[in-house]
Design a protein that fits this description.
- By secondary structure, the chain is mostly beta strands.
- It has seven helices and 39 strands.
- It folds into three domains: 387 residues, TolB, C-terminal domain (Neuraminidase, 6 Propeller), CATH 2.120.10; 138 residues, no CATH class; 170 residues, no CATH class.
- The strands form eleven sheets. It has a four-stranded antiparallel beta sheet with strand order 5-4-3-26, with no helix packed on it. A four-stranded antiparallel beta sheet has the order 6-7-8-9, with no helix packed on it. Strands 10-11-12-13 form a four-stranded antiparallel beta sheet, with no helix packed on it.
- The radius of gyration is 28 Å and the shape is globular.
Amino acid sequence: MSHTRSRLRLRVRIGGWGVGLALALGLDACSSSQNLTPPVSTDVQAIVFIQRPARNSGGNVFDYTSYLPGARLVKLEPPSADGKLTVLTSDPMFAKADIMSWDLSFDAKSIVFSANLGDSGTRYQLFTMNVDGTNIKQLTEGDNDYVYPIFLPGQKILFTTNRNVEEGTPQFKDEYERAVTAQVGTITTDGQNLELGPRNVSHRVAPTLLPDGHVLYTEWRHLGDVNDGHLRMMNADMTDMREAFGGELNPDDKAMQAASTNSYLRARYVGRSANGTMQIIAIGTSRDRTLQAGRLLLADLGHSEATSSLTNLTPLVPGDRGASKPGVGRYYDAEPVGDVANRKFIVSWADGPVESEILAAGSTLANFGLYVYDAATDTRFPLYDDPTFWDVQGRPIKPRTEPSVTASTIVDKNVGFLVSAINVYNTSLVNTVHIPEGTAVKVRLIEGFSGEEGIMTFGTTEFDGQSLYGEVPVKADGSFAALVPANVPVHMQVLDKFALAVANEPVWISGRAGEQRTCGGCHENRATESAVMPGQTQAMLSGAVNLDTARVDRISTNYTYGNVRGVPWDKALQPIFDAKCVSCHDGDASKPGNSSFTVTDMTTGTSQTFVFDLRGQKVDVMVGERMTGDFTASYLSIMGLGEILGEDVVNITGKEFDNAMAGNALGSKVIQKLNPPQRFPVIDPTIRAFDGVNHPALKGFEGKIHPMDVQGLELTPDEYYLLSLSIDMGGQFFSRENKL
């Protein structure tokens, strides 16, 4: 079905501005020429939207500072052919401004928006004004950006910002573009009482308010090979952040899997389903290259992630970063209008490829115009399009009910962030996260950081910086509790008695000072009532283990168990290889165990041969997308080339090494062959992790211990632990300790 943009334009001059109007006459290629029914709901008297100068970029869905001068906030009243267009930001102060987002108050009388005024050194700041453009007030100022504002109950505004809640420490930078990350904050509508929420290693963007008072937002989840933008939920005071949609899509639901995308952006509340659960509409797209545009997805949040559902309203629109076809295009945002059952939305849509690299190659720009999309008939009705602007974020001027303020989980703002679980064995992901009963001995808590530490590349794996907070016991009832630093990301792993992670929580979480967050288990069903109240678990009754240490002290002073934080490869692990490995694994391909392979870069024609080598000399890698000489032979032999090759097309001949699986020491052949002894509750060398196990990776090697099987020296308990810890924390080469 074609959706060719109508070419009908009416040139008019309103208020001194020349505009191009595509009339809402139903003249879409999918609609009958006799269908002249106004597409906008009869209870919508006016709409407000942003006009931004057209731009092109990498299209990262987490970009928020793409400044170009000349944007404006406008009102069309009524939203029809004879409607009056009013420029709300006609004040001269906005002459060079870029406006990136806006929201309407509950009584529909005022607007909050984020604008960069364009003066030298200025940032995106928050402004409010009446819905007629009068009474303009600037709420924020300074050297940080304040973006994505929304109204909250109780005369508050929530936003995201790159301002750091931890004074005196650098704000996080994301894992790819190294852009300063955006975190949440609140301020009162009079510009007072600014509070900042907990930080994450990646961005939090595009918040929206749900009718129950919770805030839905998009978070860049990046941890190892996890790299997506899921919808998450929090209380209005920025506590109790948790997954809302995207993390547990039913793997057996083929339609749902086909509709799913890497990222879900600009979610807006639609209404309640027949069973009372909330439905939202969101843009589904790839993380980059799509100008933040994609398909229209209708999601039912369900009572839990596992009971959520997803409907693709625009199946012809690609969900990846591939170019869209003419007549199909991509959608930038969607806002429901009229009765929920009618499934009508004000949308911003652009025709053509809508892919940044293709647009750049053709020296052209995408053109987003406003339409009313009827999902029931898969029809777009042209509403408004000025081809000199992106016409986006069209929303009706209509009052809505102000929700109640959601409860807070902050108990004492003078302490850290308490994180706990009622039962780590309780999970709704039995197919992917299953912890055999009785195997959980400890929970490992890990700190995350990124390029703000002055290290741009931590290694060849997908992981960024990690440092150990500590490990706390799992009680007999499956509970644990730990106090960690507030406003700093924490990642959790469940350990067995060999100190190997048997389960990884695949996201970073963070909490405010004094916040107490207790989950039922590892990905437990939120619809299931907990059998034990959080304050009655054995872990809480015995007291949370205090791991809340100042940042200056979160660094290894030595690499023994209980003292190690970061695991710098050259300082912590290379001495182990030098003492117990290099006599055999010295890069001599004629020796047993030193296999080799050759990489040919098909882009450059360059070839390079690698031999298994556990010595500590740096190796110049001359193939791949990110050629480098930062890493040692031992690191490349165990952790692999990984991100060095990037997206380059390569041909590999010979047998690649059995590299460690970053984030999974238990599944790594190097750990399986070393066969570590029991670590907890006491070290016992007679009990081995893989004794008597018919493991496919150890065929013919079951029960052996390397390098003792070749008359070498066995690793010490701390050496086993260090190597396993390094792999479970992502196998980075560089750590904070390398800066000493």
